[in-house]
UniProtKB/TrEMBL annotation:
GO molecular function: metal ion binding
InterPro entries: Baculoviral_IAP, BIR_rpt
Coiled coil: none
Ranges that cross the membrane: none
UniProt keyword annotations, A-Z: Cell cycle, Cell division, Centromere, Chromosome, Chromosome partition, Cytoplasm, Cytoskeleton, Metal-binding, Mitosis, Nucleus, Phosphoprotein, Ubl conjugation, Zinc
Gene3D superfamilies attached to this UniProt entry: Inhibitor Of Apoptosis Protein (2mihbC-IAP-1), Chain A
Location of this chain's protein in the cell: Chromosome, Centromere; Cytoplasm, Cytoskeleton, Spindle; Nucleus
The family this protein is said to belong to: Belongs to the IAP family.
Record-given protein name: Baculoviral IAP repeat-containing protein 5b
One GO BP: cell division
Highest taxon above the source species: Eukaryota
Gene Ontology terms: cellular component: chromosome, centromeric region; nucleus; spindle
Length: 146
């Protein structure tokens, strides 16, 4: 699971990833290049940025909805995978290409991207809090059983 720190770092860096060219340039060490569906061009067109780590060389993350996908197969279609796993992504439902956007369009997209980021961060913090409450409750209960 992606940590809050990783989410924050990606959110801050992805403000430059509205452009197809910027996303496409992130695929320097992408393992799928030829004779497959998930080429760097198709990954970037589908909104994904390459976010490799030492143990996960094929992690791709949508710059807008921040969904993270890994374990890509040569036959995977990036746009279909994105639609299947994040059908309400604002990038996928946007009618305008980045090159056609006005400044107002861009700031509207950024505001929506910020909402997605805040929602994901809040959900993670609530999950951590729930785990903490359960652990504390377990400790207290075991003390009462003595
Ligand atoms: Zn998305």
């Amino acid at each position: 699971m992606t940590s809050i720190d990783v989410l924050s770092t990606r959110f801050a860096a992805f403000d430059k990833m509205h452009s197809y060219e910027s996303r496409e340039q992130s695929y320097v060490d992408w393992p799928f290049r030829e004779d497959c569906y998930c080429t760097p061009e198709k990954m970037a067109k589908a909104g994904f940025v390459h976010c490799p780590s030492e143990n996960e060389p094929d992690v791709a993350c949508c710059f807008f909805c921040l969904i993270e996908l890994e374990g890509w197969e040569p036959d995977d279609d990036p746009m279909s995978e994105h639609l299947k796993r994040s059908p309400n992504c604002g990038f996928l439902t946007s009618k305008k290409d980045f090159t056609e956007m006005t400044a107002a369009d861009f700031y509207h997209m950024e505001r929506e991207r910020l909402k997605v980021y805040l929602k994901k961060t809040c959900h993670k913090k609530m999950a951590y809090l729930r785990e903490d409450i359960d652990r504390t409750l377990g400790r207290l209960t075991s003390q009462l059983d003595i």
